[in-house]
């Protein structure tokens, strides 16, 4: 049962919230006073979720519970695969039933697969990359934007997708991932054009190599023994911490960037592939 304060608080939905950038963002938004709905893949339900080909392994239910518990009493965990539009809509409906509003949506869920040039890429790799990284953002946008538009004016809604340096660059052996992340940039720009003067902005952040489970999988795909080898790709000469990405997302959820919409903001330490 939520308190009176929680019922009046702004509400954020974060996908991919069990760990990494999503978990760091959820924690920051909770500290800022948001009630946070943390969504991640129901990995503990074998058979329900098609695995991603290759070394990438999604988070577990206990990762999700831990991330929710780190949200200073304001975190609420929901399991849904972002590829599954019906499951995503059902979670959004129950968030609305419980908290009555949505103020910020962070689409951070993502996965990585590859390891071959485009012409040798399998259907499984192609489909999983497009469905998780691009359709997943579409699904959460389509499920949440109508509720944000239905909120009383003046509105101050925020939609933030986590793209990638791969939204600007074509990364070798990660063609499907790069295509999906370029798609995320296009989706967010179109969304911003459609939302116009509604008071709801749509932006993306484009992280460089960030020290998470996904980077470990990327290193394995490239045959690197240590993800820190990616540090050379950043002018700052080190990997980014997930909290550094989360800090920019948190800022995008404040009142300050009122003039910012349709932008893809690089948080990449000066990425130079
Ligand atoms: N780590 C990097 O170097 C890096 C660089 C650029 C962009 N990104 C992007 O940052 C975002 C966060 O990734 P991260 O680095 O924190 O990695 P991560 O693997 O720690 O986090 C991704 C989260 O998404 C969840 N997820 C995966 N598939 C899902 C699905 N189908 N439905 C619901 N949840 C799902 C995972 O369980 C995990 O909790 C991703 O969109 C990723 O593409 C990461």
How would you describe this structure to a colleague?
This protein has 273 residues and is of the alpha/beta class. It has a single domain (4-267), classed as Rossmann fold (3-Layer(aba) Sandwich), CATH 3.40.50.720. 40% of the residues lie in helices and 14% in strands. The protein is built from 8 helices and 7 strands. Helix 6 links the parallel strand 5 (157-162) and strand 6. Helix 2 (20-31) crosses helix 8, helix 4 packs parallel to helix 5 and helix 5 runs parallel beside helix 6 (175-195). The structure holds nicotinamide-adenine-dinucleotide. Nicotinamide-adenine-dinucleotide binds next to helix 2, helix 5 and helix 7. InterPro entries: KR_dom (IPR057326), NAD(P)-bd_dom_sf (IPR036291), Sc_DH/Rdtase_CS (IPR020904), SDR_fam (IPR002347), SDR_subfam_2 (IPR030981). Belongs to the short-chain dehydrogenases/reductases (SDR) family. Keywords: NAD, Oxidoreductase.
